[in-house]
Design goal:
Shape: globular
Number of domains: 1
Largest sheet: 7 strands, parallel
Helix content: 25-40%
Number of helices: 8
Order of helices and strands: HHHEHEHEEHEHEHE
Distance between the termini: 27 Å
Radius of gyration: 17 Å
CATH superfamily: Vaccinia Virus protein VP39
Structural class: alpha/beta
Strand content: 15-25%
Length: 219
Amino acid sequence: MPYFDPGYFKKKAKVNRNVKRSVKNKLAAWKLDKEYYDGDRNNGYGGFKYDGRWTQLLPKIIKKYKLSNKSKILDLGCKKGFIMKDLKILLPKSEVWGIEDHIYPIKNAEKEIKSQIILSEYYKIPFKDNYFDFVIGFSSIYKYNFQDVVKIIKEINRVSKKSFFTIAAYSNENEKRLFDDWTLLGTTILHKKDWIKLFKMINYKSDYYFTTAKSLNLL
């Protein structure tokens, strides 16, 4: 159950630390449609466009998890499929699937991988046990409530040989407040120690990364 930092957050983003997303912003975001992905920045991404950034990060992940052109890989919470597209660029013969639980990003997914995205809740992965060599869940599973997050992690355990996902966490009350003020979809946000306890209780032994106020440069 190792902590793994793939390096995605090393570049400091320009963040307005005084921004507090309102209930109105959260309501707009939770529609998970055009406004969240490609609308106003206060309601979501402010334009969720492919830029090829994952081709720079994925080689580190490919090396760590010993992925190859023979690997079967799942992106859980794949959004428009940017990770999937870059995986296929780097490992063109690998079998890559994505799962998303709302329709807008699937309809607007990258054309090269659109047919490989399945509409499903994250806790219902329609593949047999140990089907995937690797499952990645990047900034996706913690929008679910606690009970469903537990089911999702158990599903990841069931279908994968190795996995890595990011989860919302904090070390103190100030970090929790900052994260709560910033997040639009974050629902299950636990103390780091509680995440580790949970992993042990449900026998999750693969890798994870804590998304925190610090990693988001909110401090």
